[in-house]
From TrEMBL:
GO molecular function terms listed in the Swiss-Prot or TrEMBL record: citrate synthase activity
Keywords annotated in UniProt: Transferase, Tricarboxylic acid cycle
Recorded catalytic activity of this chain's protein: oxaloacetate + acetyl-CoA + H2O = citrate + CoA + H(+)
Cross-referenced PROSITE patterns: CITRATE_SYNTHASE
Name of this chain's protein: Citrate synthase
Pfam families for this protein: Citrate_synt
GO biological process, one term: tricarboxylic acid cycle
Pathway(s) annotated for this protein in UniProt: Carbohydrate metabolism; tricarboxylic acid cycle; isocitrate from oxaloacetate: step 1/2
InterPro entries reported for this sequence: Citrate_synth-like_lrg_a-sub, Citrate_synth-like_sm_a-sub, Citrate_synthase, Citrate_synthase_AS, Citrate_synthase_bac-typ, Citrate_synthase_sf, Citrate_synthase_typ-I
Superkingdom of the organism of origin: Bacteria
Family that this chain belongs to: Belongs to the citrate synthase family.
Species per Swiss-Prot/TrEMBL record: Halarcobacter ebronensis
Length: 428
């Protein structure tokens, strides 16, 4: 038996199989079981992939025990609120932060690529009023593949670079238009004089004719720099998260040689679920449902009751069994913005009471259930006058650089294969 190997013995036959242990730069080592079926005639069984590393990656690292998250080696604490979101996108897509000149050119290019083909706008017309923006975004993203038919040749780096930048630039436009379409107000085109994040707020809030008014309250409402900075930091904290459910979906669809934007549309579908990115919308609904600090114990009891399907939204994570570092950064942002953006103190009080009750309860402590990123984003997004149904679309906008970098990495991996797991058959 070699030092860096693991031997598995089938106790029924006494046969042993030896597998290499591979060390990454950080994180748990892996046992390379790629030949296991060929060797033993058996599959490994790991529903939900709790013990499976599905790929090799150089993009994002998480240490769930020590609350650590790094993009291309840089801790998120050094990026959120310190580098612009677009610089972080550049980092994820290229492996390094841009020089000031690269940053300027990247920003300019993204501004110019933010427009949508008019054919996509006609697609919005075909969808019903009150459609959830996530459904519309999935459809519009899929439809991009009808326009950009290339983007499939991994040896053509220029083509891949344009493909990545295009989807990054267009997603805020798709999201804002999906929302505007759902409430039946005229579309607002991107304003290339505005930075990415400001432009998104502009497209969400503006009325045709140039005057900015918040849709819904009718007051003049210019976009404040503090709002742009807050949303920029939120986008940064969502930018990548290694092989989560939606990223794995993007990679799985990409492994079939599907178009990158079709893979991204599948990622949007996967993210929408309430166990994943859809939780941010559900957190806000739940805080409103709890309604008052005095009701918190009732809902904590419901969350603990195994006969009640109620789960505390914004709590728990597959990887973080300790504090979610993204949540910690958002909590700091929340505290900083409390006065400046007039955060809803009633909701904040309920959220604080939920957190305090959960973190002093053995049910949550023993299972390592801490507030996750979705627990803190909602109150800030509400203060930015973002409608609740746009919470998960904001997660999508933030996650684009992660998904598209992971897709590119897959395509450039010569050992990549179509994702095709097997099963334990127990049927007739
Ligand atoms: N409320 C009550 N109990 C919970 C919760 C919760 N939010 N989350 C997990 N548990 C319990 C669960 O019932 C199980 O208990 P037991 O061991 O007695 O059966 C234990 O904790 C482990 O849970 P699990 O479902 O096996 O863990 P998982 O790793 O498969 O699921 C999760 C992780 C995020 C899906 C889950 O914690 C959850 O549903 N949380 C609420 C939804 C949420 O906030 N999602 C956003 C995640 S962060 C954004 C993102 O990156 O997607």
């Amino acid at each position: 038996m070699g030092k860096n190997t693991m031997t598995l013995t089938d106790n029924r036959t006494g046969k042993s199989f030896e597998y290499n242990i591979i060390d990454g730069t950080r994180g748990p080592s892996v046992v390379d079981i790629r030949s296991f079926y060929k060797d033993s005639g058996m599959f490994t069984f790991d529903p939900g992939y709790t013990s499976t590393a599905s790929c090799e990656s150089k993009i994002t690292f998480i240490d769930g025990e020590n609350s650590e998250l790094r993009y291309r080696g840089i801790p998120i604490e050094d990026l959120a609120g310190k580098s612009s979101y677009l610089d972080v996108c550049y980092l994820l897509m290229n492996g390094n932060l841009p020089t000031p000149e690269q940053s300027k050119n990247f920003d300019l290019e993204i501004r110019h690529r933010s427009f949508l083909d008019e054919g996509i706008l006609r697609l919005f017309d075909a969808l019903p009023d009150h459609a959830h923006p996530m459904a519309t975004m999935g459809a519009a993203t899929m439809a991009l593949a009808t326009i950009y038919k290339d983007h499939l040749n991994p040896s053509n780096e220029d083509e891949f670079r344009v493909m990545r930048r295009r989807i990054l630039a267009k997603m805020p436009t798709i999201a804002a238009m999906a929302y505007r379409n759902s409430i039946g107000v005229p579309m607002i085109y991107p304003d290339i004089n505005r930075y990415f994040t400001e432009n998104f707020l502009y497209m969400l809030r503006a009325y045709p004719g140039g005057k900015l008014k918040y849709l819904g309250n009718g007051h003049n409402d210019e976009i404040k720099q503090v709002e742009v900075d807050a949303l920029d930091a939120i986008l940064t904290l969502h930018a990548d998260h290694e092989q989560n459910a939606s990223t794995t979906t993007v990679r799985n669809v990409g492994s079939t040689e599907a178009h990158p934007y079709v893979s991204i549309a599948s990622g949007i579908a996967a993210l929408w679920g309430s166990a994943h990115g859809g939780a941010n919308e559900r957190v806000m609904e739940q805080l409103k449902l709890i309604g008052d600090v005095k009701n918190v114990p009732t809902y904590i009891a419901k969350a603990k009751d195994k006969n009640d399907p109620f789960r505390l939204m914004g709590f728990g994570h597959r990887v973080y069994k300790n504090r979610d570092p993204r949540a910690q950064e958002l909590k700091k942002l929340q505290d900083k913005l409390r006065e400046e953006l007039h955060l809803d103190s009633h909701l904040l009080d309920i959220a604080a009471a939920v957190e305090k009750a959960a973190l002093s309860d053995d049910y949550f402590v023993s299972r390592g259930l801490y507030p996750n990123i979705d627990f803190y984003s909602g109150v800030i997004l509400t203060a930015l006058k973002i409608p609740i149904e746009m919470f998960t679309p904001i997660f999508v906008i933030g996650r684009i650089p992660g998904w598209i970098s992971q897709w590119t990495e897959l395509k450039q991996d010569p050992t990549a294969k179509i994702a095709r797991p097997r099963q334990l058959y127990t049927g007739k």
